[in-house]
Specification:
The chain has 207 residues and is an all-alpha fold. The protein contains ten helices and no strands.
Length: 207
C-alpha cells in the first residue's frame, strides 16, 4: 500500500514520460545544423524532428515554439572548451585566439551560423540580439580581457581604446570569413598576418 509520502510524490510528478537528455541533445544539434544550412526563416519544427529522429510532439513538449527552440540551441554554442593561450606575449595570445575562433567556425559551421544571424537581424531582431548577447559578446569579452592584460603589462599602447583594438584584431577575419570567403578554410598563416598588421598600429614601442 502506498503511504502519504508516495501519494504526494505521485501528485508532484508531471504526467507522461520523463525527459530524455539524449533526445534534448539530438534536437538542439539538429536545430543548429539546420540553422547553419538554411537560416532562421527556413527552419521548420518538422525538419528538426526528422533530423533528430523524434516526433514533432516531443519537441513541442519541451519548447513552446520555434523561437524558444532556436534560443536554447544558440545558448548551447557557448559551452565550448576555452581556447588555450600561450601567455608568452600579446601577439602569441592574439594569434591563438583568432586561429581558435576561425578553426571552430570552419569545423563546426559556426561561421555560417554567424552569417545567418547577421542576415536575420532585421527580420527577427530578438533572435539576433540574443545570439549577440549569448555568443558574440562572450567572445568579445574574451578578446578584450586579453588586450587589457597585455596593456597592463606594457605591450599595448596605454592610449589605445580596448574596443578599437579589439575591432582591429577581429573585424578583418570576420569580413574574410563571412563576406569574402564563406565556407572556405583560410590560409594557415592568415591569423598571424592579420594580428601582425593590427599590432603595427596598436603595440607599444619596444625598447
Amino acid at each position: 500500500m502506498m503511504g502519504p509520502c508516495a501519494d504526494a510524490d505521485a501528485e508532484r510528478r508531471p504526467p507522461g514520460r520523463p525527459r530524455s537528455a539524449d533526445a534534448d541533445r539530438a534536437i538542439l544539434q539538429a536545430t543548429l545544423e539546420l540553422l547553419t544550412e538554411s537560416g532562421v526563416a527556413s527552419l521548420a519544427i518538422e525538419q528538426v524532428a526528422a533530423r533528430a529522429g523524434v516526433a514533432k510532439a516531443t519537441i513541442y513538449r519541451r519548447w513552446p515554439n520555434k523561437e524558444a527552440l532556436i534560443l536554447d540551441a544558440l545558448a548551447g554554442t557557448v559551452d565550448e572548451k576555452p581556447i588555450d593561450l600561450p601567455g608568452t606575449s600579446m601577439r602569441d595570445d592574439l594569434v591563438a585566439l583568432v586561429q581558435g575562433i576561425v578553426g571552430r567556425s570552419v569545423h563546426t559551421g559556426r561561421g555560417q551560423l554567424y552569417a545567418w544571424m547577421v542576415a536575420e537581424s532585421e527580420r527577427n531582431p530578438h533572435i539576433a540580439h540574443k545570439y549577440k548577447s549569448l555568443v558574440v559578446e562572450r567572445r568579445r569579452e574574451l578578446i578584450s580581457s586579453v588586450l587589457r592584460h597585455w596593456q597592463e603589462r606594457g605591450e599595448l599602447r596605454p592610449d589605445i581604446d580596448i574596443e578599437i583594438a579589439e575591432l582591429l584584431v577581429t573585424a578583418p577575419m570576420l569580413v574574410y570569413r563571412v563576406h569574402w570567403n564563406p565556407g572556405v578554410e583560410p590560409p594557415a598563416d592568415l591569423a598571424a598576418q592579420l594580428v601582425d598588421a593590427a599590432l603595427s598600429g596598436i603595440a607599444a614601442p619596444q625598447p
